[in-house]
Design goal:
It is built from 6 helices and 9 strands. By secondary structure, it is of the alpha+beta class. The chain has a single domain, classed as Glutaredoxin, CATH 3.40.30.10. The chain has a 7-stranded mixed beta sheet. Strands 6-7 form a two-stranded antiparallel sheet. Strand 6 and strand 7 form a beta hairpin. The two termini are about 25 Å apart.
Length: about 170
């Protein structure tokens, strides 16, 4: 499992881009993880699935609500990662009004989740291999904090914990 001090694994994540610009076409776009985190402080939180109860009611809304405070604490970007495709992540982001606050990054084949060692086997519930629920603060591609939830819990990967950690590293 990835730990504090490790670099993020190489690879890419996809995002459904709503507006054309900066060389990105409208629709799903792949972003190289190393390039996208280079020289930045990125608050990353991951969760088991789009449109699921805790994820939709608490996890993402908390980061949307705290987006300005996170930015004020030195965070350049906030990423939500889930093992869903970019179309689903884009629709979920529109539903939760994340525009300009949280980037909805798709890990469609769970490659990033597998590489971090932070997977969750939900086959028994018909959901397949998913991401565990966690958050991490990444500076220039290196993990500075990591908060992994116990199964079925939502206690340490929330936006308030991330804000406290971001302020301590500012």
């Amino acid at each position: 499992m990835i730990k504090v001090g490790d670099k993020l694994p190489a690879g890419s994540l996809s995002e459904f881009v709503e507006v054309e610009g900066n060389g990105c076409s409208i629709g799903p776009n792949a972003f190289d993880i190393a390039k996208a985190t280079a020289g930045k402080k990125v608050a990353i939180f991951a969760l088991p699935g789009a449109f699921t109860p805790t994820c939709s009611a608490k996890h993402v809304p908390g980061y949307v609500e705290q987006a300005a405070a996170l930015k004020a604490a030195g965070i350049d970007e906030v990423w939500c990662i889930s093992v869903n495709d970019a179309f689903v992540m884009g629709a979920w982001g529109r539903d939760l009004h994340v525009a300009g606050k949280v980037r909805m990054m798709a890990d469609g084949s769970a490659d990033f989740s597998k590489a971090t060692g932070l997977t969750l086997d939900l086959n028994a519930r018909g959901m397949g291999l998913r991401s565990n629920r966690y958050s991490m603060l990444v500076v220039d591609g290196v993990v500075k904090t990591l908060n992994v939830e116990a199964p079925g819990k939502f206690e340490v990967s929330d936006a308030g914990t991330m804000l406290t950690q971001a302020k301590s590293l500012a």
